[in-house]
Amino acid sequence: MATIIETVTDLVSPVIPAPFELVDIEYEKMGGDYVLSILVDKPEGITVEDTAELTEIISPLLDTIQPDPFPERYFLEISSPGLERPLKTKESLTAAVGKYIHVSLYQAIDKVKIFEGDLLAFDGEELQLAYMDKTRQKTVTIPYKMVAKARLAVKF
Fold first, then answer.
1. Rounded distance, CA 36 to CA 25, Å?
2. What is the pLDDT of residues 128-154, one digit of tens each?
3. CATH value of 90-152 in 3.30.70.270, 2.30.30.180, 2.60.40.60, 3.40.50.150
4. Do residues 153 and 100 make contact, with C-beta atoms less than 8 angstroms apart?
5. Smallest Cα–Cα separation from 86: which of 7, 25, 156?
6. What ranges in the chain are assigned the alpha helix state H?
7. pTM of the model
8. Which of 23, 74, 106, 119 can pair with 81 through a Cys bridge, CB separation 3.0 to 4.6 Å?
């Protein structure tokens, strides 16, 4: 499936007009259907009209890919990344400094594989995160190579 995502990313990223930003592309089976999700954003957020405009640009392009990388029929979904925007690149983590994030790790640090807290700093190699451990505020340094997934999180 990675080749489908890579193929679509290579095709779509150059044609997404400013001020839009390509955030992520996902291809997965939901129920009995395959869904190609293209997540886009812009500084003031995206509207239904924006998604319609982008669909008109992207959908015909997908039909030009030869050979067809999609093993089955699929639905195209163009949408906002939402409040819990994925942070998949070093640039997106740098932009998230000062925000509340959720981080899943490949291996535990002090027996913990999931952290949620304020991203204090990111230097490209390590994240520094302030989080609550029961009633105590703690800070953890996480090597970037240990991050399996990161996203913005909503604090309750």
1. 7
2. 999 998 899 999 999 999 999 999 999
3. 2.30.30.180
4. yes
5. 25
6. 2-12, 48-62, 90-95
7. 0.77
8. 23
